[in-house]
């Protein structure tokens, strides 16, 4: 196997455009966002979609989708299938604009869907929507979905925000309202990926965790379940009663090809029509571009590759050390030589496409001389073997990442050299994915890790789970602040950002937050990921998006022009 | 024979129980777990991971977990996969047929060709054929299957377009011809290594028999060489091969991981690897027990067949 067993991070960042003026949007640097998207000319929809669903598309994934109840714990490729089987109340498109799906409109404070104190939500649902088995979709299904997520016996994936729900009232078959225990702005984004499940099917099962529904799902999405050959593929057929756009394909097949090289070969021979997660590796990009009859797209992804530090370790306690380490890193060399220049450099925690992204942060500069000067001034003098030390603490540490990821290993070796040049000893200590992302990471056993993370909460820029001082599991906290980062000013800003619904106000908060984190450097960002995916020429509609985990979010709009 | 079988059954059951205990312990005590795949999900919290672990029963003492799994397995409930929540036996069943198809076809080819090459190499010892066969076997044993498979795909699929680049069948076309078309490359790649092994074993077994007194006697009696070959040498040389064949039985159903990965074959080997990557404990234990049973059955089968074929052997 040539790549990590499972992806490092999943979900998207996003932006709600309702209620924000165009000038504010431009000020937020949307232009910077779309610059990350390189689409060949004419790749956007050509010709017209067919009047009736026609043809089929074979979608290649290098991981196997195995979870078909969208509310249960799952990975990115599972979501790729969920987008086609199910619908949320509203979703986010590639620009981060919220689009109503099962809801008639997205509730906001401006339109009264959310009360001014942010505590009461009122949603009007789309009438006439049918489940795949013909039963009508109603507000009862929405209430059932929310109750199921909060059911302690149900193995729910994420409960952020749902645990705050109280008093869910079905007002009519097309109207539902609920109260939140406290205002929680990210909830609208979280609902972007909360797919509705049918009460009339799931409630029949004695245990929803093992219901037959989990392998014969019924949704309201553009495609219906046809068959699954475990370990091989999943086939879906067009839903003739879909309430939204399309579908224009008769059948779509999700094909599991575990090896990336083999998947690329099958893309070359035409055995698959679209090469999706985890895409084409950077070293094959040039070869891919030269292929006849194939359209290759380099798109943005929401993950930031960084060196995450454990601030409880004595070597990393001083900000000067972290700053010096960052100056010593030759990030551009990593991007250019190891990743073929495809990803964009980053010095922050949000993807550049997010509305809360701060474009004004100081860039990372490769300056080993300055790094040495900072360490000298801070009292870290070269000791035994040329490794700096201070007060008996050596400036030596381990760096871990997923074993078997050859590209990352190369980057680690480069950094090892960079740091050796300034008198810092870094030892590479890699381990299998199932081991490193267990207690080793969660309980802060590491010195440092090289990881690609999406710090957001859904499409929302709320990063509380990762940066709040109460979110450190090793100290009994309930989040994912494995860095043991503690900055009271950051805590205050996080709380403000999560409880304010006003977009421009939130943006200011997240800009300030990004400045503080850029200054403190609990993690050393290198680049924002780029995905390299492709389709056969003639298959149009594909658009990569940072607001989803998997780029098969809009297959309902795909069709063949030839 | 009955006493022998009963004794073997008893030994096998004890062995299976030991395998289950050791396997279960090693699996659960190894670092990492089925929740590592969700650690980096944006918004995931330690509290949520703890809750999921509790719902899966993973925070209970290990003996308690083992007893629950073991007692259920005895009555046919092998648990459900953590990933697609299907019963483990169903998951294994879904992956067995592709494995059977691949392994049976490659084993038949390998045995036929391997035996022929081994026999010919033995009776024409040190000839050009024998020399080429020996070198060929060494090369075949040294070539990494992964690399060779990719080369075969590159030449015959990408460049020449004669064979598909893997997969069980073309989706939408499930005809027998389609299946066979897809079977050619992986079957031959897998057979290559087995041919090498079989030919070496066969050659060695043949050489041992050829130099026996009774062969010399048969030749002195004036029997034609062909008769000697068929009635005496090959028949006796095949005896140790029965044992080897019995040892091959587990692999028939446990699959060939590397070949299955290169040729995108949804078989047992891939199931095992994926389950281990995601720490899908119920499926891993299921495949482990299944393979253990096969090993024991295969050995027993080989021993019994050997006794049946060779009157010198008595089982008791």
This entry's quaternary arrangement is heterodimer
What percent of residues of chain A adopt helix (DSSP H or I)?
Answer: 25-40%
Distance between the termini of chain B: 6 Å
Look at the helices and sheets of chain B and give the structural class: mainly alpha
Number of strands of chain B: 0
Biggest sheet architecture of chain A: 11 strands, mixed
Alpha-carbon distance between the two ends of chain A: 36 Å
Counting H and I runs of at least 4 residues, what is the number of helices of chain B? Answer: 12
Mean pLDDT of chain B: 90
Helix-and-strand structural type of chain A: alpha+beta
Uncertain segments of chain A of ≥5 residues (pLDDT<50)?
1-44
Taking all Cα atoms into account, the compactness measure Rg of chain A is: 24 Å
What coarse outline of chain A follows from CA principal-axis ratios?
A: globular
Please mark out the parts of chain B with pLDDT under 50 across 5 or more consecutive residues, or reply none.
none
- pLDDT average of chain A, as an integer? 90
Short overview:
By secondary structure, chain A is an alpha+beta fold. Chain A has helices spanning 22-27, 30-34, 76-85, 139-150, 187-190, 199-202, 260-269, 285-289, 319-328, 331-338, 368-377, 406-420, 433-442, 464-467, 488-499, 503-520, and strands at residues 56-61, 90-92, 98-100, 120-124, 165-172, 175-180, 223-229, 233-238, 251-256, 274-275, 294-309, 344-345, 381-382, 388-390, 393-394, 396-400, 425-428, 448-453, 523-536, 539-540, 559-560. Chain A has 16 helices and 21 strands.
Can you describe this structure?
The complex is a heterodimer of chains A (562) and B (316). Chain A has 562 residues and is of the alpha+beta class. Helix content of chain A is 25%, strand content 20%. Chain A has helices at 22-27, 30-34, 76-85, 139-150, 187-190, 199-202, 260-269, 285-289, 319-328, 331-338, 368-377, 406-420, 433-442, 464-467, 488-499, 503-520, and strands at residues 56-61, 90-92, 98-100, 120-124, 165-172, 175-180, 223-229, 233-238, 251-256, 274-275, 294-309, 344-345, 381-382, 388-390, 393-394, 396-400, 425-428, 448-453, 523-536, 539-540, 559-560. In chain A, strands 1, 7, 8, 9, 10, 11, 12, 16, 17, 18 and 19 form an 11-stranded mixed beta sheet that branches. In chain A, strands 4-6-5 form a 3-stranded antiparallel beta sheet, with helices on one face. The radius of gyration of chain A is 24 Å and the shape is globular. The model of chain B has no long low-confidence stretch (mean pLDDT 90). At the A-B interface, strand 9, helix 7, helix 13 and strand 18 of A face helix 2, helix 4, helix 6 and helix 11 of B.
């Amino acid at each position: 196997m040539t790549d990590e067993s499972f992806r490092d991070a999943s979900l998207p960042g996003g932006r709600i455009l309702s209620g924000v003026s165009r000038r504010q949007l431009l000020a937020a640097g949307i232009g910077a966002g779309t610059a990350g998207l390189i689409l060949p000319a004419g790749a956007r929809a050509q010709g017209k979609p067919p009047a009736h669903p026609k043809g089929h598309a074979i979608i290649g994934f290098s991981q196997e989708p195995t979870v078909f109840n969208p509310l249960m714990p799952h990975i990115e490729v599972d979501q790729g299938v969920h987008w086609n089987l199910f619908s949320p109340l509203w979703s986010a498109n590639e620009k981060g604009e919220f689009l109503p799906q099962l809801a008639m409109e997205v509730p906001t404070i401006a339109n009264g869907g959310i009360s001014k104190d942010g505590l009461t939500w009122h949603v009007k649902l789309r009438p006439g929507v049918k489940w795949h088995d013909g039963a009508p979709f109603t507000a009862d299904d929405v209430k059932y979905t929310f109750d199921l997520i909060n059911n302690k016996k149900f193995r729910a994936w994420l409960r952020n925000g749902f645990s705050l729900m109280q008093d869910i009232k079905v007002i009519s078959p097309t109207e539902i309202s609920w109260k939140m225990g406290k205002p929680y702005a990210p909830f609208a984004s979280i609902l972007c990926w909360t797919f509705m499940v049918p009460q009339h099917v799931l409630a029949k099962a004695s245990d929803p965790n093992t219901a037959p529904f989990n392998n014969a799902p019924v949704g309201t999405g553009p495609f219906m379940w046809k068959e699954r050959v475990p370990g091989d593929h999943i086939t879906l057929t067009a839903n003739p009663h879909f309430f939204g756009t399309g579908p224009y394909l008769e059948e779509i097949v999700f094909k599991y090809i575990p090896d990336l090289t083999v998947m690329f070969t099958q893309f070359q021979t035409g055995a698959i029509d679209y090469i999706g997660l985890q895409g084409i590796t950077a070293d094959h990009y040039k070869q891919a571009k030269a292929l006849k009859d194939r359209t290759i797209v380099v798109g943005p992804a929401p993950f930031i590759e960084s060196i995450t530090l454990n601030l409880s370790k004595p070597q990393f306690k001083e900000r000067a050390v972290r700053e010096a380490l960052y100056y010593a890193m030759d990030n551009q060399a990593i991007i250019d030589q190891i990743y073929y220049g495809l990803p964009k450099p980053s010095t922050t925690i949000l993807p550049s496409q997010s509305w809360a992204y701060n474009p004004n942060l100081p860039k990372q500069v490769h300056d080993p001389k300055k790094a040495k000067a900072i360490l000298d001034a801070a009292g870290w003098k070269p000791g035994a073997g040329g490794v700096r030390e201070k007060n008996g603490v050596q400036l030596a540490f381990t760096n871990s990442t997923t074993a078997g990821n050859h590209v990352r290993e190369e980057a680690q070796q480069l950094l090892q050299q960079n740091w050796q040049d300034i008198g810092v000893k870094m030892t590479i200590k890699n381990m299998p994915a199932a081991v490193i992302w267990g207690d080793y990471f969660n309980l802060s056993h590491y010195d440092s890790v090289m990881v690609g993370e999406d710090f957001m909460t859904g499409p929302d820029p709320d990063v509380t789970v990762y940066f709040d001082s109460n979110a450190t599991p090793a100290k009994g906290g309930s989040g994912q602040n494995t860095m043991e980062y503690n900055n009271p000013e950051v805590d205050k800003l996080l709380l403000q950002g999560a409880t304010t619904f006003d977009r421009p106000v939130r943006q200011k908060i997240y800009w300030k937050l990004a400045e503080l984190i850029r200054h403190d450097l609990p993690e050393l960002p290198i680049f924002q990921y780029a995905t390299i995916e492709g389709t056969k020429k003639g298959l149009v509609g594909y658009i990569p998006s940072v607001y989803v985990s998997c780029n098969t979010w809009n297959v309902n709009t795909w069709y063949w022009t030839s | 024979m009955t006493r022998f079988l009963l004794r073997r059954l008893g030994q096998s059951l004890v062995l299976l129980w030991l395998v289950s205990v050791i396997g279960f312990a090693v699996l659960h005590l190894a670092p990492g777990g089925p929740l590592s795949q969700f650690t980096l999900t944006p918004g995931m919290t330690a509290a949520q991971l703890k809750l999921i672990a509790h719902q899966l029963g993973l925070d209970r003492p290990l003996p308690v977990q083992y007893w629950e799994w073991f007692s259920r397995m005895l009555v046919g409930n092998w648990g459900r996969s953590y990933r697609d929540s299907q019963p483990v036996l169903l998951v294994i069943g879904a992956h067995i047929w592709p494995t059977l198809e691949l392994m049976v076809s490659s084993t038949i080819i390998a045995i036929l060709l391997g035996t022929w090459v081994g026999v010919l190499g033995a009776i024409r010892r040190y000839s050009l054929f024998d020399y080429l066969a020996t070198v060929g076997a060494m090369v075949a044993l040294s070539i990494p299957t992964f690399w060779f498979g990719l080369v075969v795909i590159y030449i015959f699929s990408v460049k020449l377009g004669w064979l598909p680049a893997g997969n069980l069948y073309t989706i939408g076309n499930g005809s027998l011809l389609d299946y066979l078309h897809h079977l050619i490359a992986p079957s031959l790649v897998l057979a290559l290594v087995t041919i090498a092994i079989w030919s070496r074993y066969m050659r060695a077994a043949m050489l041992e028999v050829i130099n026996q007194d009774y062969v010399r006697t048969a030749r002195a009696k004036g029997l034609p060489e062909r008769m000697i070959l068929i009635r005496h040498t090959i028949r006796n040389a095949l005896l140790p091969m029965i044992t080897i064949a019995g040892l091959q039985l587990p692999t028939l159903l446990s699959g060939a991981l590397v070949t299955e990965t290169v040729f995108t074959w949804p078989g047992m080997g891939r199931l095992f690897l994926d389950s281990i990557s995601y720490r899908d404990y119920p499926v891993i234990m299921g495949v482990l027990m299944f393979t253990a049973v096969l090993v024991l059955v295969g050995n027993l089968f080989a021993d019994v067949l050997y006794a049946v074929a060779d009157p010198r052997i008595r089982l008791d």
